[in-house]
Prior knowledge:
By secondary structure, the chain is mainly β. The protein is built from 1 helix and 11 strands.
Amino acid sequence: MLRKLLLISAISSSALMSPIAKADTSEPGFYFTAGVGTGLNTDIEGTINGTNFTSSGRTTFAGGLGLGYDFDTWRVEAAVTRATAEIDSVGIGTIAYDVDESATGTGFSIGIAYDFENDSRFTPFIGGSYQMAWSDDADDSSNSYGLDLGLSTPVSDDIEFWTAIGIGYSPEQTIDSVNFDAATAWGFSTGLRVRI
């Protein structure tokens, strides 16, 4: 059961891993991207066979590789992500348990981003994403949405460093007969984008 509870935490925060940034060129074209991130502690609630539960945990590591296309100020991207989450506590009814469990999951995301071009070396951006993910210990997939706010700066003509803060939202869903309430999770990510 604990590994199923971890799934929603891992998926919520890994949606934040939206490695979308702006390269130092104004020509449209394809790019590869790679990023890593981590999440802040979040609470998860739901029911198992009519019994309410709560849990507290966070995504400890999320990584992703993606391929995107830059249309100049707009970009679209597809990425594969991998996340590890840890659960610190679980409450069932009025009883609370301290636990030390972790689980991993793999996801596929699609995203879109807009760059706010300006005359400085730093380009602010906003990005949104949708992700489907599968925990290593669950049969059903989950879905989540992400919103990122970040900055990017060129390292060379074809490489850019980016960093972002984001929020992930997982709607109410049932995963392997566990009903999860809607949940949000905050996180941070950083990475590189390489123009092809």
